[in-house]
Amino acid sequence: MKLLKYSLAFLFGVGTLTSCMDNLDVVNPNQQTTATFGNTVDDLEECVIAAYNHMRMEGSYARVGYTIDACRGDEVWNSSQVWYMEFDDFTVLVTGDIAWWPWREWYYTINVCNFILSRVGEDNSQLSENLRRIKGQALFIRGLSYYNLAGYYQNPPLITSYDTYSSLDGLYGTNSTYDEVLDQVEVDFQQAMELLPSRDTGGEWAGGRATCGSAAGFYARTLMVRHKFSEALTVLEDIISGRYGTYRLMDNYGDNFREGSAYENNEESLFEIQFLDYASQGTDDEWTPVNTSPNATQGSAIESNFAPGDFGGWADLSATNWLYDLFKSERTINGTLDPRLYWTLGTYEADWEGFEYGNVAYTQPITASDTIRTNNSYGGIPVAKYTNLRTGLYSTVVTGLHDGINVRLMRYSDVLLRAAECENEVNGPTQRAINWINEVRGRVDLPDLQLADFNTADKLFEQIANVERPKEFGCEYGRGFDLIRWGFFYDAGRLQQMKEHSVVRITNDPGKVMLPVDYSNIGSDPELKSGFDTYVQGHEFLPIQQTLTNKNPSLQGNSANYSTDNSSYFRDNGWTVRPVVDLNN
Predict the structure, then answer these.
(1) Which of 313, 315, 311 has its CA nearest to residue 395?
(2) pLDDT-derived band of residue 393, with 50, 70 and 90 as boundaries?
(3) What are phi and psi of 40, to 5 degrees?
């Protein structure tokens, strides 16, 4: 009996000691370190969510990271004449502020991805299905981050190991070359393609997340940046054939620009940025770089930038008259206007009576005598895309991070038009290229193109670059990236064409907003302006800001810092700028 008592006392003591030791080992969840966090699948899943979240910041896709590129193109101009003017005019100073926000956002995101990748290991064959998905998402998001950094800043430092951050020398990263960064982007997207499931097999998990189709689409985009058209064509063909999931064009073009589960993450979307719908927004309009509030609105401010002042918007950005005239120049097989005009620009058109929500701007009916100006002082044709100007959701814009429409970064229509472009580059104008273009045109009932009308690759390229893509993707993110990869900044004819596309009329007279504009009248008409007139070589990229080079002694500027010509890089690679072609002849 005494022995039994001693044994029970011993076991009770061990249990008590174990209990105490367990209590001592509890980690404060609010004071995690890299030594205590990131060792479980759940931890790493939280990191993935953090990486996705930082893609929705001001410098990524919630505001300026998106709109800076729209301004850099020839479809959009800065109608406020304040906030985005230096981006519109290619005169960004190294001492500015806004221009480094994308840098800040994407390196934060890269840091999170590098941490994830440091925990999952290099041997993919040893990974569970959950870890494969976690690693694939980290690779995709890091690839997307560097794709943006190269597209904006040309030669940013390439940091791929989390161990790099452990020393001051590592933190003071030196510039990598444009090619070195894009080489890594290709590798990241390729690996993500192998690790991630398709949207078909991913099921509910795939809704809003990167899939192998997302990675394949962006891999093809990256290949095209450096004119690897044959390789890109193979990837695009595989997407079209369904190898990376089932995609199709939505019957209604407008379904790509509405919020709500019925429209977002639809069958046309390869990847999109998730924003909370209008009815489910939080209360804190938080602008901090880390977005830590549990009540953050988690919408975008893109609508605030685009929306006309009369409806509560900031009236910063407007569409160019060239884009409007392009839409008006061709009608459908039924004799009506291209419905993409309705969802792209906020103009009154007789054709819109009875179409969708009709002639409406933020639920308010407009008539033929109403000309909506983006900015009351400077004019401008309103941009409807990624706003609720046409959705009938509300009548007044609540400015800030409140727009709940998901930004579709890549749609299946882009796959089709890129496939046509690559086919044209590799094999010249072919019926197959024409068929892919016609698939996109057919969705909006435009008449089919005929191969007989395109006797040269130059002519079909002109149709793709300056007709099909602007109509399908007008005022969306990516036009500036396209102008760079096409080499339009390095050819006198193309530069002149971009100047003419960008001519706008600065006026407070609503009767003049949509008047035809002519580049040749810039000298004689003081209201006319083209942002490309002030372009200086090298400034197709944003300069690396002085606040960064001051803090990092190893960091140097890029072509925009020193106004150096990039045409030699373009031509030394054997790439050619396709000449301007008159499509009417």
Answers:
(1) 311
(2) very high
(3) -130, 165
Cβ(583)–Cβ(461) below 8 Å: no
Q: With contact defined as beta carbons under 8 Å apart, do 384 and 390 qualify?
A: yes
What secondary structure does DSSP assign to 208-273, as a single string? TS--HHHHHHHHHHHHHHTT-HHHHHHHHHHHHHTTT------SSGGGGG--STTTTT-TTEEEEE
Mean local confidence (pLDDT), 144-172: 93
Using DSSP, state whether 383 is helix, strand or coil: strand
3 state DSSP class of 54 = helix
Q: Which residues pair with 261 in a beta bridge?
A: none
Q: With CA atoms as reference, report the closest residue to 153 among 539, 546, 550, 575.
A: 539
pTM comes to 0.94
Q: d(Cα 534, Cα 384) in Å, to the nearest integer? A: 28
Mean pLDDT of the 537-555 span: 96
Count the residues in the chain: 585
| Crossing angle (nearest 10°) for helices 64-72 and 129-153 | 50
Beta strand 364-365 with 407-411 is unpaired
Quickly state the pLDDT bin for 8 (edges 50, 70, 90). very low
Residue with token string 């229509």: 413
Q: What is the mean predicted confidence (pLDDT) over 305-318?
A: 97
The pLDDT of 341-359, averaged and rounded, is 97
End-to-end Cα distance, the chain:
110
Domain positions in the chain: 39-162+536-567
Provide the H-helix boundaries in 33-93: 41-53, 64-72, 85-88
**From 3.40.50.1820, 1.10.10.60, 1.25.40.390, 2.30.40.10, which CATH number describes the 39-162+536-567 domain?**
1.25.40.390
Instruction: Evaluate if residue 6 carries a pLDDT over 60.
Output: no
Q: Residue 347 in contact with residue 514, Cβ under 8 Å?
A: yes
Q: Which tokens hold the place of 143?
A: 């690839």
CA distance 471 to 344: 9
